[in-house]
């Protein structure tokens, strides 16, 4: 008569079966796939070499510039909206709430179309400073600010109330206490989610293609699509995807470390 399995043994057996099932599925997919056709369509080494250095000096550089400019604009606007959201003045709170709900609810693609089409129609003869770079910063920033505002607001509210009271007892005005004491502590709390937002913006920068960019203004996705169309091969798209990973994977690791550090500090 076999002995009854303990809870730990049952858990080990269950995990073993799950691993075995996972390996079986991977092997089945690997055996089923036509690796020769995939290599011919996505991994042409000679074609991949031809993408360099332009894919780095133009496409990746533009992607980074678009992302950083959108992040900076979104951070400044997000901080302003977060403070309005916490304001004791009701109209400020209403305006901030409407902005957050509006730009979090709309797809980023529609925001880019609005920036590229609606803004020039609404303000004829007025150009957005910076040309395409300014349009991208505005489009990405408007979307990012709505998310950053809620993140920053949560960070400000997470700072203990005693910090404000201590600052006021030292003679600080409310505004000075916010700038010198509360906001710096809030940013230390929200650095991980803000870094994660940077990763999302890096990928959302691919929407710049809807603004009608020139050859020198192309980012990674536009660059890869154009070259794939010209060569009738998808290798440029794969290389562009690897360039995205060169940035997003290290940033994701940074986010995990910052989150772990925040948990230890808490």
UniProtKB/TrEMBL annotation:
Keyword Transport found: yes
Membrane-traversing stretches = 12-31, 64-84, 105-124, 136-156, 177-195, 237-255
GO MF annotation: an example: transmembrane transporter activity
Q: Show where the ABC transmembrane type-1 domain sits.
A: 60-255
Keyword Transmembrane helix recorded: yes
Keywords annotated in UniProt: Amino-acid transport, Cell membrane, Membrane, Transmembrane, Transmembrane helix, Transport
Subcellular location per the Swiss-Prot or TrEMBL entry:
Cell membrane
Annotated membrane topology is:
Multi-pass membrane protein
CDD domains xrefs: TM_PBP2
What Gene Ontology biological process does one annotation of this record name? Answer: amino acid transport
One GO cellular component term noted in the UniProt record for this chain: ATP-binding cassette (ABC) transporter complex
Q: Tell me the NCBIfam families matching this sequence.
A: HEQRo_perm_3TM
| Family statement | Belongs to the binding-protein-dependent transport system permease family. HisMQ subfamily.
Q: Which PANTHER family match?
A: GLUTAMINE TRANSPORT SYSTEM PERMEASE PROTEIN GLNP, MEMBRANE COMPONENT OF AMINO ACID ABC TRANSPORTER
Protein name as annotated = ABC transporter permease
Q: Which organism is it from?
A: Streptomyces kanasensis
């Amino acid at each position: 008569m076999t002995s009854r399995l303990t809870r730990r043994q049952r858990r080990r057996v269950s995990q073993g079966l799950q691993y075995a099932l996972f390996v079986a599925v991977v092997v089945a997919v690997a055996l089923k796939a036509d690796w020769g056709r995939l290599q011919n369509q996505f991994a042409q080494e000679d074609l991949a070499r031809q993408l360099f250095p332009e894919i780095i000096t133009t496409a990746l550089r533009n992607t980074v510039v678009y992302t950083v400019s959108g992040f900076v604009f979104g951070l400044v606007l997000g901080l302003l909206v977060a403070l309005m959201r916490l304001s004791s003045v009701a109209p400020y709170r209403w305006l901030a709430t409407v902005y957050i709900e509006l730009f979090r609810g709309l797809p980023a693609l529609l925001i880019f179309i609005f920036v590229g089409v609606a803004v020039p129609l609404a303000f004829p003869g007025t150009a957005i400073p910076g040309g395409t770079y300014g349009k991208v910063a505005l489009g990405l920033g408007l979307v990012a600010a709505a998310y950053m505002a809620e993140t920053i607001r949560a960070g400000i509210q997470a700072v203990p109330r005693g910090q404000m009271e201590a600052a006021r007892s030292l003679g600080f005005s409310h505004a000075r206490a916010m700038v010198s004491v509360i906001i710096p502590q809030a940013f230390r709390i929200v650095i991980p989610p803000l870094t994660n937002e940077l990763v999302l913006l890096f990928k959302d920068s691919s929407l710049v293609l809807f603004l009608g960019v020139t050859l020198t203004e192309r980012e990674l996705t536009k660059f890869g699509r154009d070259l794939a169309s010209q060569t009738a091969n998808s290798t440029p798209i794969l290389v562009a995807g690897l360039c995205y990973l060169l940035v997003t994977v290290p940033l994701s690791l940074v986010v995990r470390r910052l989150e772990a550090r925040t948990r230890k500090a808490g």
